[in-house]
Amino acid sequence: MNLSEQIMADMKEAMKNKDKIRLNTVRMIKSALMNEKIKLGHDLTKDDELTVLNREKKQREESIADFVKGKRDDLVEETKKELAIVESYLPKQLSKEELEQIVVETIKEVDAKTKADFGKVMKGLMPKIKGRADGKVTSTIVREHLK
Predict the structure, then answer these.
(1) Distance between CA atoms of 121 and 100, rounded to whole angstroms?
(2) Which of 3, 28, 61, 112 has a CA 20 to 30 Å removed from the CA of 9?
(3) What is residue 56's predicted lDDT score, i.e. its pLDDT?
């Protein structure tokens, strides 16, 4: 089952169960995917879908941080539920150990030695971990290994 079919099935299930948060979140994801399809002018590839899902995830993480600053606990809880729903469509995230192993392998592949090689490492690394690791965490690990 591809992502579009999964989203439609989840929408129907959320309607039957009268789960408003899940229904609204799935609708937002579907809308974001449709907007991306229109913007690109072709059917979405797996990478395109991952990009959209990661964007949705990041938006919710930023919203949670803003709501915490604004002391809006009611919105924090609702947004955390939305975030969990978005994450359910993303591939399993890499553990820190798995990510470090991939970083070390990539550093060897591109023959990086100094911090100046950071861009080369990230360029080689991102296709390997797309959607499975946070970019900030990844860049921190790369910097640690290039010291």
Answers:
(1) 13
(2) 61
(3) 93
Contact 47, 33 (CB under 8 A): no
DSSP 94: P
Give one DSSP letter per residue of 38-75, joined into a string. HHHTSPPPHHHHHHHHHHHHHHHHHHHHHHHHTT-HHH
**How high is the pLDDT of residue 1?**
66
Q: Quick check: 25 and 86 in contact, CB under 8 A? A: yes
Q: Which residues contact 145 (CB under 8 A, 6 or more apart)?
A: 100, 103, 104, 107
Q: Per-residue pLDDT tens for 89-107?
A: 988 888 888 888 998 888 8
CATH topology of domain 3-89: Hypothetical Protein Yqey; Chain: A; domain1 (1.10.1510)
- Beta-carbon neighbour count of residue 9 at 10 Å? 12
Per-residue pLDDT at 96? 86
**What sections of the chain are H helices per DSSP?**
3-17, 20-40, 46-69, 73-89, 96-109, 118-129, 135-145
CATH number of 96-145: 1.10.10.410
By percentage, how much of the chain surpasses pLDDT 70? 99
